[in-house]
Amino acid sequence: MPDFIFHEEGVPQPDRKGRAQGPDASGPSGDDGQSAPGHRWSVALLVVVLLAGGLAGLGIYAQQWKKNVWVREVVISGNVLLQDSELLGFAGGLIDRNMDSVDGEALQRRFAAHPYIRAASVGKELNGIIRVRVDERRPLARIVSDWFSGIVDTEGYVLPWRELPHSAGQLIDVSGVKVKKNGGNASGKIDPAEFAVLQSFLDALSGTDYARLMVRKITFIDGNKTYFTASGSPTRFLVGNDGNYKEKLKKFEIFWQKVVARKGLDSYASVDLRFHERVFAREQEE
The domain at 68-136 falls in which architecture? Predict the structure, then answer.
């Protein structure tokens, strides 16, 4: 019977996962079946080239689009105080113009030059529409005097007088404030110290139950003598310039309900609310 001799090193042996083990058992890449690093880099480079080509193609397409699209409409948004018809006047001459010839930044500056507009943004669309979004200034009060009338916004700028829609709300009249000229689109700006007083007073007024329905005008006077008047009454209610308007307006409401309602709207020349927990009233001289 012939003898058979086996050499173990030449016989592939399976490992625990059933893969062949031996001198020629590695995959085609020589790293146990995994892809070679050079192959992975080639795939990544191909992806990058394809993306770059796609972006370049989009850029070329966009340039061609601009040269072949004409403006067919200008759409205004964000406006509450200003009418569309007024604002469209700032975009005059754009209809039927080549979209590529429209200077978006120049158009944006044109809208922002309106005194009632804080800022504007301009966008161009594939369908030939130019969209202009405006950020309007917010009215805070109305300046009235013998020599000047205007609207004060929430930043203290004085805007040219104009009739405002009902959506702007009822504005308190203000007189006696110092207005400093500036180089912007607004007519000027209220003195910062007086504007701080005005803001503080109106903030306190907005949180009252009844005073906000009655107070109609606040008059600034130097020497801490600022006062306000209420609807239908000539009485001056002194609140000064030193703050604490929430307490002062509360005293006004109590005085109005308990005294003015009983004695009449024109019984007092002035009512001083500036002192803590005290009210000093001076009757009208006959």
Answer: Roll (3.10)
Q: Is residue 225 packed enough to be buried (19+ CB in 10 Å), middle (13-18) or exposed (0-12)?
A: middle
Measured at the alpha carbon of residue 133, what is the angle toward residues 128 and 136, in degrees to the nearest 5? 155
96-129 burial, b at 16+ Cβ within 10 Å, e below that, comes to eeebeebeeeebbebbbebbbbeebebebeeeee
Cα-Cα-Cα-Cα dihedral sign, residues 247, 248, 249, 250? positive
Q: Which residues of the chain have a pLDDT value below 50? A: 1-8, 17, 20, 22-23, 25-31, 33
Is 151 within 8 Å of 161 (Cβ atoms)?
Answer: yes
What is the CB-side half-sphere exposure of residue 249 using CA atoms within 13 A?
A: 23
What is the homologous superfamily of the domain 139-283 according to CATH? Cell division protein FtsQ/DivIB (3.40.50.11690)
Q: What is the DSSP string of 92-117?
A: TT-TTSBGGG--HHHHHHHHHTSTTE
Task: Supply the pTM of this predicted model.
Answer: 0.70
Residue range 78-97, pLDDT digits in tens: 999 999 999 999 888 888 88
